[in-house]
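Pre-mRNA-splicing factor SPF27: structure, please.
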Amino acid sequence: MAGEVIVDALPYIDHGYDDVGVRESALAMVEEECRRYRPTKNYLDHLPLPATSPFETPLMVNEFERIQNRLPMETLSMKRYELPPPPSGKLGEVSAWQEAIENSMAQLEHQCVRSLNLELLLDYGTEAWKSYLEVFTAMQAKAQLQLQQLKKDIQDVNWQRKQAQTLAGERLRSLDAHWVLLVSKNYEIETECVELEKLVQAAREHIKTLGPTNANDTAPTPEHINGHAEEDISESNGNINSNSSASGDGDGDGDVENVEDVRGGDGDANGDGDGDDAAEDESSNE
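Here you go.
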């Protein structure tokens, strides 16, 4: 899409360009592309012609026409620097001599202008040249400043690009490691799933080898098991409740009597001799 930049290389973090055979492989790919590419003569027909008419002068138009017609270039005319006399057939004509005199006057004026320019150059040429050198030096200094600024901008752009690519490289490496970890986990999970499927298939095959069961040997359903269990639980609960109610009627008396019996039994069992000794002690005291 327009306005988007497709980045297909990160030279600050990519490696392997200096390896053996990489340059040769790249050159071979370029040569192969050049062999397969067949340029056409009119590959620029879809582009409009440049508008050069605003910049063309009559001299340029004539020269372009001469080049298009493949005509030879006209030689430099030296006629204005010559002082030819009138032709032999026109020596008696006044107009021919008048033309020759005008040509000589033009040549003389031209030489006067040249000598005047030389005198002006001798008088003011040194100062003019110094002024030109000063202007040229100032222009050179300004160009040097612009060049240094451009170099600094290029260096800043390269540094920013290097920093961005370094950060992107770290991010890519972390994402790559995370991707490898996820792929490894997925591979382990798939392996475990395959093993479980094998176990399930082996169990199914083993069940098939056992053969079908008889009708009398059918196992009880969970509903039947639950029903019997509930009946047994209810019966046991009823027995427990009846026993507890029977014991609850004589809690006050029966418990006390049992406790006294136990204590009495303990006293008889443990204190037969103790009771006699106590009676003997009382009689002796009397």
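Notes: Confidence is low (pLDDT under 50) at residues 221-234, 239-286.
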